Structures are given as C-alpha cells and as structure tokens.
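It is worth pausing here to work through a concrete case rather than discussing structure prediction in the abstract. The textbook approach is simple: state the sequence, then state the predicted structure, then interpret. We follow exactly that order.
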Amino acid sequence: MLGLLGFYDELDTAPGQLNGSIHGAVQPVGEPDEAGLVAYLDAGHVLMDVMEAGHDVITGSAHRHSAGCSSLLTDGTWLWRQDFPHYVETHHVSLPGAFIEHVRSLNYRMPTIAVAQFAPHYDETMPLVGWASAVPWRSTASTLVPEPRAATSKAQYDTATLARDRNRPHVSWGRLRKSPKR
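Step two, the predicted structure:
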C-alpha cells in the first residue's frame, strides 16, 4: 500500500479523510529543506489527471495548482494530490517523518518506477482515497521515468498573476451605454 499525503477533510466532499483536517496540520514554519521537499512533490509521476479547478481551502485564493488540483501523483511509495505542494509551501503543513527521510535518502530526486511492481500498490490504495471504482491503472511503459519539470514557485506564480492582472483592461460593467432606439 502507498503512503498517503494531503488527503484532508476540507479537500473532499466525503467526511473523515485519511489525514484529518488541514487546519490541524498547518505550522508556523516548514522544514529547513522545505523548498527541496516541495520540488520533489511537484515532480511526482501523474497517475490520474482530474479536470477540475480548486482554490486554497484556507485562504480562498487561487494558486499555482488550482487547475487539476485533485489529480493524483506518486513516487512509487507515496501518493498525494497535485495541490499538496502548495499547502506545504504556503502553509507549511506537516509531513510524516518517514516521507521526509524517504525524500532526503533520494537526494530530492524523483525515482523511476517499475510499473509491474507498482501497479498492485496502486490497485489496493485507490479505494482508500475514494476511487474504488477507478479502472486498475496500467501504463503501456514498463517504467515511469521522471519528466524534467520547471517547478514554478509560489513567488513566480504570484508575480505572473499580478502582471497578468495589471495588463488586463479595466471595464466597468455597472453602467453600459445603450444604443438609441430608432
């Protein structure tokens, strides 16, 4: 079975999620190597791509993982939601010690996954995260090799969003001018 990260009550409509309430996991500061842990989480292998948009359940704001937020990622040992790195980076949610040691032992590099060894773990874990009816996962590849990704930081996301909003024309929809009737 895969270890589960970031399956909080506030992120799902079904009560009693495996990791409890996200509010209980928020910390004032993160791990000293939090940036490396976030980059590792960002580089996870995508198992299930979910087309939905979400927001930060603590602040209500959009974030860099808003699109596809509940997509599922893995490193072959752990399973997490795509938006989990946002909560680690922004709210310093606590991480299990076993996960931290696992990532540090890999020098923050996403491992290659042997599909034949991984598939049974996926099949037994999916019902625990609410995907009991998910089609058993099978990749056509024999191994999953990490894709190089430029993990966009929260600061880069905030800067790009601010620039985008600054360049949008401001339109007041309060009083639209009507064309005269003929």
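Step three, interpretation. The helical segments are 34-42, 84-91, 97-105, 115-125, 154-166. The chain has a mean pLDDT of 76.
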